[in-house]
Amino acid sequence: MAAYVIGALTVHNTDWQQEYGAKMPALIQKHGGKLLARAPASQLEGEALLHGVTVMIEFPTTEQAQAWHADPEHLPLQKLRQGGSHMDMMLVGGL
């Protein structure tokens, strides 16, 4: 069953983006993931919950999504991103 990582990203500076952007796609692919969206969200109803840029990544299973997030190669990229942005991230299992 597919699983989706959804993140809301607020960028404070862009110093980290070149290195992060060069390495993250391969790490996502390593765990069977695919980037589905990276753009500001449009509000359709209710209160806005996703700020900044919304990122959506699809993984074949929740286990693969969790393995991506826990991968030791991910930690330095997380720290890099956290140095120039704020990310709220959640994992949603598919139907």
UniProtKB/TrEMBL annotation:
Pfam families: DUF1330. Residues 3-94 form the DUF1330 domain. InterPro entries: Dimeric_a/b-barrel, DUF1330. SUPFAM superfamilies: Dimeric alpha+beta barrel. PANTHER family: BLR0684 PROTEIN (PTHR41521:SF4), PTHR41521. This is DUF1330 domain-containing protein. The lineage of its organism: Bacteria, Pseudomonadati, Pseudomonadota, Betaproteobacteria, Burkholderiales.
